[in-house]
Amino acid sequence: MLRKLILSIAIATLIGSNPVATAAEIAPPTQPQREFKVFVLRESGWQLYGTYALHADARQAATRLWREGYRVEIWEVRGK
């Protein structure tokens, strides 16, 4: 009986030291910072039309310009 009590105290001490990491210690997976720049070809040359965080937004702007008859390009820029 005494051995069980000592063993229980030892196990409780080990478990009580919290081997599980807290939420503050766990870092979320990081994704590379990137942005998308839309360039349009005008009479004076290539001009930056806009910068977007999402590719879908950049594509929407580029598609609108393309339908208006402009030549457009989307550039991905990594690591702000």
From TrEMBL:
<feature type="signal peptide">
    <location>
        <begin position="1"/>
        <end position="23"/>
    </location>
</feature>
<protein>
    <recommendedName>
        <fullName>SPOR domain-containing protein</fullName>
    </recommendedName>
</protein>
<keyword id="KW-0732">Signal</keyword>
